[in-house]
Every structure is written in C-alpha cells, then in structure tokens.
Design goal:
Distance between the termini: 135 Å
Number of helices: 30
CATH class of the domain at 448-555: Mainly Alpha
Low-confidence stretches: 11-20, 543-555
CATH architecture of the domain at 448-555: Alpha Horseshoe
Order of helices and strands: HHHHHHHHHHHHHHHHHHHHHHHHHHHHHH
Helix content: over 70%
Mean pLDDT: 90
Number of strands: 0
C-alpha cells in the first residue's frame, strides 16, 4: 500500500512538472509574440537548464536569440551552437528547421533548404510546428535570404492539417504573401488568424503595416487597424514602437506619447536607452541627446549599443561640428553591423569629412570604399557625386571631372548628361585630351549630339590654339551639320563653330571670302552679337564695327 501511494505521488509530481513546463513554455512564447526577446530568453533558459532535452524549449531559446532586429553575429553563432549541440545527440525535426533558419541568416541558402526539406521529410510533412518554423524562417520580412514562395507552400500545408488552430501560422502565412508581393492574400491570411483568435493583435497590426507601406495617404486606414490592435491587446508593444517611429520626424508630441507606451510594454534593454536619447534628438534637444547617449554608453560598458554613436553623429551634424560628426561615425562604422548602416549615414559622414580642412584625400578614399561596399548603382552615384560636387565648388574642375567620370564607369547605361558633366569639367580644368576622349565616347553612343561635337571642337581648339593643324575642323563641321536641325536650341554651338571658322579661314587659309561667309551665318543667327559684327568690320577694313542693324541689311 505504501509503495502504491509513493507511486501515485511520483506520477502526480511528474504531471505537475509537465504542466508547469507547459505553462512556462507558453509564457516564453507569449514574450516572443510581444517581441520581448530578453524576457523570453530568460524563461527558455531556465527551462533548458532544468530540462536539457526539452527540444521545444531549445528551439524557442534559439529563436529568442535571433529574432530581434538587434541580433548580432555573436547571438546568431550562439543560437547555432545551441541547435547543433542538440542535433548531435538527437534528430529533432524542429531543431533541424531552426538550423535552416540560422543558415538563411548566414547566407547559406542551399544548406538551409536541405535542412528544411530533411525536417519536413522526417516529420512526414505532418508536424505543424515544423512547417510553421520553416514558413516563418522563409517568409518573415527580416530574413532577406528566405524564399517566400516556399514559405507560402509550407504554411498552407500546415493550415490543411487537423488541429491547426494557431493564429501564428496564419500571420506567418500573411507575412509570406506580403513578401511575395500579394497584399490581398496577405490580408486574407491575417483575417483568418483573427477568426481563430479575435484578440490576436499581431494580425491587425500586420494589416495596418500593409496599408502604411502604401504611403501617408493611407493614414486613416492603417491607423484604424493599429487602433484595433491596441484595442485587442493594449500591452502589445510593437504597434506603439511602429507609431513612435512613424511620428518621430513629423509630430514629436505624438511620438512622445507612443514612445512612453512602447517603453512601458517593452523589455528594458540597450535599445530602450538609445530610444530615450533619440527622443531628445527628435525634440531638437541635440545637446541633451548627446548627453543621454553618453550616459547610455557609460552604463553599457565595453559593448554599447552601436546606434548611440550614429545618433551622436547626427546630433553633432545639427550643431555643425564636423570633427565630432566624423569622430562618432568612425566609432559607429567600427561597431555596427554593416548591413544596418544606411546610405544616409555614409553620405552625412562624407559631407562632413570634406568640410574638415586637409581631409579631402581621406574623404575620397572613404567614398571609394562606400562605392565598393554598396550593391546599388543609385547609391554608388550618390556617393561619387558628393566628391565631384565638392571639387566643382572649389573650382578644381579636373578633379571634379575625375569623379564624374567614375559615375560613367559604374553606370550600366550612362546618360548624355553624365558624359557632358564629366567632359565639361575636364575642359574647364584644362584637361583637354580627357575632354576629347570622353566626348568622343559620348558621340559613339549618342551620334546626333551637336553639343558633344562642339565640345570636341573646343577642346581640340584649346590644344591647337594657333589652328595651324586644323585639329578642331572636323568636329566643328559635324557640330554645324547636326545643330542646323534646331538653330534655336543649338544656337550657342552654332555661334562657336561659325566664329572658329571665321578665324581659321581669315588667319590660316587667308580666305577672306570664306571667313566673311561664316560671319554672315553668325550674324544672321544672332544679329545682336557684337563680337561677330566687330570681326566683320575688321575683315572688310571698316574703321568702326558694323552694328547689328547694318549687318541685317547684308544679303
């Protein structure tokens, strides 16, 4: 009888432990839902410490490390080590899906797909948790290497299984559709989540995000869904964070309101301290923002939140302290994940570096580095223009031409404007041969451009200043031929070309009649041109230049 009672006691104890673990797991997953990853990590860590073989807790512990937008390489490596250690001693399908998620973050797309397919195969495609984990890894907006079509396929497969009543699956399906570019199906999936749980704030929040992505003109619509999310669950922090960011630069009063609500419903972490400093910046209190950022940096020790240095740089930029801007951006670039550094940060850094005397060479080297790092052609052009316009403003036209020429070299299809801008700067900087070379390349692509031929002529004339070699002749002849199609638009090019031939025929070939004929063309095109009239007076031996009115009387 005693043994029987002892056995009953053991069974009850085990049941209580199982129930407690389930409650604690649910609590941790709820923290994930609220995006309170620090709190979630604490919960799952305790479960795993007490039960090292609890594969569900291990999976969610790894997720708590990598789901935050602030997850570092170190966090991702720690999650991978956790998952790998578990797989070394078991063949958990859920952990295998988790490894695939990590590999997507690492850019190992094929390895990730292999692990996803293996997890699905071993679970016979009937494990909702595995399918949901794979769907989230591929469809969630923060994983750039995921395959949203694959995510849609597997999440739809999960919804067709019996007992699939988890709104998280449908919201993940909505996210995958959204990444796939199908807003209508995304909204339908989010609404399905609300049918399962009408209080599921994340679903209304995600619908609002779709309308917000369409621009401020949709504010009344997306605010309706954000307010529904708040009504669903007033402690759902992500909606407050989103609204704080939305109003940050346009309505400081509302930004403060939503910031306070967000902080009240979020983990207290390094990002919280940063956002308190950022709020000071949004209010225009730049010195206070710097002071608060310094306070955060001091509190956080050896590894402060990298964006604090970027915020300080922004504040010093407002205060027009270029040396401090550059100093803080140097720290920011050193500490921040390169994928999180914006084009705007590089632009602000370069602009301020050029403002520091003697730093133009360093600024140029940094711009070359930014160009090499960036994959977008449009961003590369922006960086290069900073240097080009700097040298142009300093009337260092040869150097400006060099930088504008780099724009031509990185563009797949440089425009006529690109060639003209670089070529003109070379011409103004006395780099006449480079100007000729560039405009020659231009006319090979834009064959009917009188401007380019005119610039080849002007640059050749500058080299052959005495005209004895006639280097500019062919170019000016072509310029005239092409410009005659629109004498109003190309009047400057025609006048330059005509005046060149006036001088060439008068001085080199001693052909007065041809010189006069080109003068007649110039005066006919612009009777008010005093220079042309004075040339004619000289050629005809008049003592006084012929007035525009007199020239108009000539046949």
């Amino acid at each position: 009888m005693k043994n029987y009672k002892a056995l009953i006691g053991i069974i009850i104890g085990i049941m209580l432990i199982v129930q407690l673990n389930a409650q604690t797991l649910d609590q941790g997953k709820k923290f994930i839902y609220y995006e309170k990853y620090k709190s979630a990590k604490d919960v799952f860590q305790k479960i795993v410490s007490a039960d090292p073989k609890n594969e569900e807790a291990i999976y969610w512990l790894g997720q708590s490390m990598i789901r935050s937008e602030e997850a570092s390489v170190k966090d991702i490596s720690a999650a991978k080590a956790l998952y790998q250690t578990t797989l070394n001693s078991s063949s958990s399908n859920l952990i295998m899906a988790g490894i695939g998620h990590i590999e997507l973050l690492e850019g190992k797309i094929q390895d990730a797909r292999n692990h996803f397919e293996a997890a699905i195969s071993l679970s016979q495609g009937k494990n909702i948790s595995v399918l949901n984990a794979i769907g989230f890894a591929n469809g969630n907006p923060d994983v750039k290497n995921g395959d949203p079509a694959f995510a849609v396929e597997k999440l739809k497969q999960a919804t067709l299984l019996k007992k699939c009543n988890d709104p998280d699956v449908y919201v993940n399906l909505g996210d995958a559709y959204r990444r796939f570019g199908d807003g209508g199906m995304a909204i339908s999936a989010y609404q399905s989540a609300l049918l399962i749980d009408p209080s599921y704030a994340r679903a209304n929040y995600r619908i609002g995000k779709i309308y917000q992505s369409q621009g401020r003109g949709q504010e009344s619509i997306f605010m309706e869904f954000y307010n529904k999310a708040i009504a669903n669950d007033p402690i759902y922090g992500p909606v407050y964070e989103n609204l704080f960011i939305y109003y940050y630069e346009t309505n400081v009063i509302k930004a403060v309101e939503y910031f306070d609500k967000w902080i009240a419903n979020a983990d207290e972490d390094v990002k919280s301290c940063y956002n308190k400093a950022a709020l000071k910046y949004a209010q225009g209190l730049f010195l206070e923002a710097i002071s608060k950022a310094n306070e955060c940096i001091a509190i956080e020790g050896e590894n402060p939140y990298p964006s604090l240095f970027g915020l300080k740089a922004n504040a010093y930029n407002k205060l027009k302290d270029s040396i401090k801007v550059v100093e803080n951006y140097n720290e920011y670039f050193k500490r921040q994940n390169p994928e999180k550094i914006t084009t705007a940060a590089y632009i602000e850094y370069a602009n301020n570096l050029f403002k520091i005397p003697g730093s133009d060479v360093q600024a140029g080297l940094m711009i070359d580095k930014f160009v090499a790092m960036d994959s977008l052609e449009s961003n590369k052009v922006v960086y290069l223009k900073i240097a080009a316009q700097y040298y142009e403003s300093k009337k260092m036209f040869k150097e400006a031409g060099d930088w504008y020429n780099k724009i031509i070299m990185i563009k797949k299809s440089p425009s006529k404007y690109d060639f003209n801008t670089a070529g003109i700067n070379f011409y103004r900087g006395g780099a006449y041969q480079q100007s000729i070379d560039l405009f020659t390349l231009s006319v090979s692509k834009f064959i009917d451009d009188p401007f380019a031929y005119n610039m080849i002529g002007k640059s050749s004339w500058a080299i052959d200043s005495t005209m004895e070699k006639g280097m500019a002749n062919a170019a000016f002849e072509k310029a005239i031929q092409l410009a005659l199609v629109d004498t109003i638009k190309y009047k400057p090019q025609l006048m330059t070309s005509y005046k060149y031939f006036v001088a060439y025929y008068a001085n080199i070939l001693k052909d007065k009649n041809m010189a006069v004929s080109y003068l007649e063309k110039a005066i006919s095109l612009d009777p008010s041109d005093a220079e042309a009239a004075s040339y004619k007076a000289v050629l005809l031996g008049n003592k006084q230049p012929i007035s525009p009115k007199q020239s108009e009387k000539k046949p």
